[in-house]
Amino acid sequence: MWSGPRNISTAMMRAWENRPDCEVVDEPFYAAYLAATGLDHPMRTDILAAQSNDYNTVIEQLTGANVASELQYQKHMTHHIPRGMDMQWCKPLRHCFLIRDPAEVIASYVQKMPGVDEDAIGITRQAELFDEITDICEQAPAVIDSNDVLRNPEGVLAVLSEQLGLPFTARHMLQWPAGRRDSDGAWAPHWYHNVEQSTGFGPYRPSQPALQGAHADLAQAMQAPYQHMWQRRIQA
């Protein structure tokens, strides 16, 4: 699942982890991304200590004999993947892109981080990876929009599961116990407060953030890559 920050990506991970046949991996490239960029993110030291700092090692962990479960859900942040990275490791996997309106992403992101730019929210990189993975896998990945999921989680997840050739059961994927998980990344104390309180997908609330200045300009600039994926989204 290829997402960006401040989407419903962790709630989506909860839905898949609550399946009895699925294990999840939470943002496995985060430490490698921080090590490569030198960025000072919240809980940086803990993240670097918790995961491999080497991209190739992480790829082996995601694709090699270390994958013990028959069904593994990988939650990825698109901005963690550097441009020029060989994405052939993706070919045997099934892919889905989780998108959200750029204005909503930006409005949420600035509540947790002091600054925001194009690279930080990963929407341009998400569209690039969508095209790269389409070429590598010789078919377009599924796309789901967070607002569509919140409007109709059962319908969207049922269609997605069908496209992936997997059974869908509402009792597993639409509700889960509250609390933290052992599978949550080291960054959970900073980012996951809301999802830790959740027991299912939140209600859909129409939102039109009143962005100003550079934030509004960034949201407008991100519309083209967002629409590139949005027009291909699952509708249920």
UniProtKB/TrEMBL annotation:
It comes from the Bacteria. GO terms for biological process: carboxylic acid metabolic process. It holds the Pfam family Sulfotransfer_5. Belongs to the class-IV pyridoxal-phosphate-dependent aminotransferase family. This is Sulfotransferase family protein.
